[in-house]
Amino acid sequence: MSDPALAHAAAQVASAQQGVPVIKAFFDAPTFTVTYVVHDPDTRHAAILDSVLTYDPASGRTAFEAADPVLAYVEQAGLTVDWHLETHAHADHLSAAPYLQQKLGGKIAIGAHICEVQQTFGALFNAGAEFARDGSDFDHLWADGDTFAIGNLAVTVLHVPGHTPACVAYVIGDAVFVGDTMFMPDYGTARADFPGGDARTLFRSLRRILELPPETRLFMCHDYLPEGRDHYVWETTVAEQRRANVHAHDGVTEDEFVAMREGRDRTLAMPRLILPAVQVNMRAGHLPAPEDNGVAYLKIPVNQL
Ligand SMILES: N[C@@H](CCC(=O)N[C@@H](CS)C(=O)NCC(=O)O)C(=O)O
Ligand SMILES: [Fe+2]
Description:
Blueprint: H1 4-15, E1 22-28, E2 33-39, E3 45-49, E4 54-56, E5 61-63, H2 67-77, E6 80-85, H3 97-104, E7 107-111, H4 114-124, E8 140-142, E9 147-150, E10 153-159, E11 168-172, E12 175-177, H5 199-209, E13 217-219, E14 235-237, H6 238-244, H7 254-265, H8 274-281
Parallel strand pairs: 3-6, 6-7, 7-8, 12-13
Antiparallel strand pairs: 1-2, 2-3, 4-5, 9-10, 10-11, 11-12, 13-14
Helix pairs in contact: 5-7
This protein binds glutathione (GSH) and fe (ii) ion.
Fe (ii) ion binds next to loops.
InterPro entries: Metallo-B-lactamas (IPR001279), Mito_Persulfide_Diox (IPR051682), POD-like_MBL-fold (IPR044528), RibonucZ/Hydroxyglut_hydro (IPR036866)
Domain Metallo-beta-lactamase: 32-222
Pfam family, one: Lactamase_B
C-alpha cells in the first residue's frame, strides 16, 4: 500500500480488540443526522462526534432537543469527554459542539482543510476581518494520517474530501466514522455539489476507506431511509459496502460514479438549513458575534446558492 496513513489505519483496525470502542448513537430525525459518543471502557475517556444543535429557521430559535440526551448519557455513564470531533462543516445542521464543550469540557476539532471552507463561505457571507479564516476558531485541526488516543483507544484520521474539501473520517479502534462519504449500502453516497465539492475526489476518498480490512465496522453520519426500508440504520462494514453499495460497490468505475453523482446532484434541492448551518459551523459552531443591541444575526445571501 503506497498510502502510509491508510496502512497505519488498516494495521490499527487489524490489531484492535473487536467490539471496543463502546459506541452509542443518537439519531436526530429532523436532520437525519447520527451523533456518536465513543468511549474507552477501561479509562472511560470519550469523544462526541457530529453533535446537533436544534434550530428552527422560521423563528430563528436554537434548542437542545438533540444535544441534551447526549449530555445526559455522558453524565450518567461518568465519561470524560476529551474531544468534540466534526467530520466536516455540515451543511444540513448546526453543530452543538460549543454547547457540549461548555457543559463537559474537551476540545473541538475538524480537518485542517477547513481553512479552504472558511475562505469560500467567508466570501459568500461577506464576513468581516473579525472572522478568522485560519481554523483558529477550532481548538485543533487534523491532517491526513494524524494519530491520537482516546484513553487507550488508538485513533487515525483520514482526509476524505469530495463532499466538502475538509471532510475527514475518524478510525477509532476497529470502527470508522465515515462522515458524509458513503451512506448505507441501499442509499449510496453523499452529494458532491456543495461549494468545493467534487464527485471524482469523493469516489477516490470513499474507495480509499473501502481498502480497510473487510470486517471493519463503518458508522454513517446520516440515514435517509430509502424506499423499501422502514427503520433507520447507520452501521455496516467494509465488506458489505464493497458488495452492495448502490453507487460505489466493487466494479463501479470512477467515470460511471462521476456521471451518476453529477447527474443526481443536479436534481437535489439545497438542504433546508444550509445557510444557517454553514454560517455557524464555519465558526466551529459559534454564532456570529452579537451586534451592538446584544443580538446575534444570521445572514441570507440572496440568489447566491
Ligand atoms: N433533505 C435533507 C437533505 C440534506 C442533504 O443534502 N444531505 C447531504 C449530506 S449533508 C447529502 O449528501 N444528501 C444526499 C442525498 O440527499 O441524496 C435536508 O434538507 O437537510
Ligand atoms: Fe454533510
